[in-house]
Amino acid sequence: MLVARHLCKTYGERVAVNDVSVTVDRGQIVGLLGPNGAGKSTTVAMLCGLVAPDRGMVSVDGVTLHGDAAPARRRIGVVPQDLALYENLPARDNVLLFGALYGVDRTVLKPRADQALAFVQLLDRAKDKPATFSGGMKRRLNLACALAHDPDILLLDEPTVGVDPQSRNAIFEYLEALRAKGKALLYTTHYMEEAERLCDRILIIDQGRIVADDTLAGLRSRLPATRNATLQLQGVVDADLRQLLASRGIDVTESAAPASLEDIFLQLTGRSLRDES
Amino acid sequence: MSAFLALVRTDLRLYLTDPRALLISLVAPVLIAAFMGSVLGGAPKKPTPIPVGIVDLDASEVSQRIVAGLRSDPAFDLRALAEAAAVEQVRKGSLRAAAVIPSGFGEQAVAALFRPDAQRPEIVVHVDPSQSMTRPMIEGLLAQHVIESVTASAFNSATGVRAIGSLREDIAAGGAIDPGARTDLLSMFDSIQRVQARSANQAADTSGTAAAAAAVGLRMPYRTRSVEVTGGDDTPYNAYAHSFAGMSVQFVLLMGVDLGVALLLMRKLGLWQRLRAAPLSRGTLIGARIASGTAIATLLMAGIYIAAVVLFGVRVLGSLAGFVAVVVSFALMASTMGLLIAAVGRTPGATRGLAIVVTLLLVMLGGAWVPTFLFPEWLASLTRFIPTRWAIDGLDAMTWRAQGIDAVLIPVLAMLGCSALFAALAVRGFRWQEN
After folding, report:
1. Is the C or the N end of chain A the one with fewer CB within 10 Å?
2. In 3-state terms, what secondary structure has residue B320?
3. Nearest CA distance, A70 vs chain B (angstrom)
4. What is the pTM of this model?
5. Which residue in A has a C-alpha nearest to residue B431's C-alpha?
6. Alpha-carbon span B348 to B186, nearest angstrom
7. Is A65 on the interface with B (CB under 8 A)?
8. What angle do CA A147, A151, A154 make, to 5 degrees?
9. 3-state secondary structure of B235
């Protein structure tokens, strides 16, 4: 449904995105995983037409986003990382506005807005202003605003930043429900557990390049299972002590576990911090 | 079109339901314009007397006549004081000025009136330097009363009799003067002495007050009558009309600054990017901002002028169409200026500070605070090219100056041209992509 081929974007001397290709099909959640500054947001910006790529192309069911892209762009919903809401406009009016911007007919816009609010469990707060909402509620409204025009494709740029576990779980359930409806979702995050839970396929991006594109199982198969030993001891335990304990006949239990996605991620992208300049 | 209207409607709704914005943009200009209008004269009314001190160290018939004349003048609120107290009150600001009539003033003034070689006495006027506007008025009125009092005394008082007598003796004995001129001068002095004698006899027959009233002396050979040139013969000047023009221009420009800063804030919060992600053309996004800004500015101007009409009697005595044209073209200019600010600004905080300083400078140069004729000549010439002056002059022309629409055609076209320039610069400088 959403296809991007060989996207490149450079800002001055800095290469933000280098030959990135992404495909998201109906009923699929694709995770775009990367450290800070890896090029996730720039990629999303190019996918929704906000930033023009230097090279490469983006298409929705074969219709490119170049030129008169309005019909294709109407099929895309964007949930930005920022809480991009009018704080002093009631929740319903926020959803109505963004629906109107995507050309939804007035006769269907109001019920559509209420559906979106009901979907994120905010219909009872439809008349309240986001300024009075908690962080989690604002995140859910942020999602509802992207759903007002019933898009086929949803681009979510770290949509759970700063929310409590309950709101995060609720958002996961919404996204899973959208997948079940046949929507195509691209989900950027740097939270490993989110990608593990939600994504059918995971793309790992680092320094503007896709370094892995696979299912979770496929990614896991890239690294051998690590061996973990659990010792329930008190006091300082080092190799000498462990050898000593073994030599004294103390039982040491060991168990094997598969590598976590975080292990894989760190193996691929390294462990150094990537603070944005 | 529905997306365009949705954006405009949202901007209008957000602004007009924001109590802080309305307080600053609507209530503040009305209050400040009311204050400035009252300071500049307000609605037609009796002028406030100027508080002036008088110190009479002479206490002669001449000086008392001067004090009486000044006291009867409605332009002054005269207070007789000791010199130290008078100066202190000027220093404190409770008196605009204090005039000190020195000892011996009467004798010296009458003598100096006829004798070029006589020493002229000096009246010292202590003035409040912050009240430079009233100083020439005080000195002018003081000159009038001194001349009238001194000449009256010269013809009617003992001081005058002594002075003329002494002068006549000097002329009669003088050798250097032309004989023909001497004869003429002596004849004039004789005539004056006859007038003095007649006045003395009348004073003996009547009360002193009546004699003073009938005193012969020099008077100002003319009087003035000021006719205010306003919108009509029966229409007095209303100073609120100008103050409301200035304040509405100032606060609508500040509203334009706010709109520009709000756009920078939207960009910072990610809201602008979200709008950009929608399938809208740049023209729709920018056009909606200009349209909503113009509509808000027009509504604010309308609100401010409704208050001016209802509360302060300001009237659009000129062309109503011209007034609307000035308001709308200025509103458009303020809106595009806001867009330009958003295009060139980087952070909301820094941009707001700089934009407010520039706006206040423009407003000051436009004559909203002080009349432009008080500026140095080069600066006054420069203000002809300041858009705020076009707006203020245009509003003045359509209100109390009662001009026709032709009087504002050039200012309106100039403001529309400025709007086009601001919009073009804004679109060119606008950062459409984040990096």
Report:
1. C
2. helix
3. 5
4. 0.73
5. A51
6. 86
7. no
8. 80
9. strand
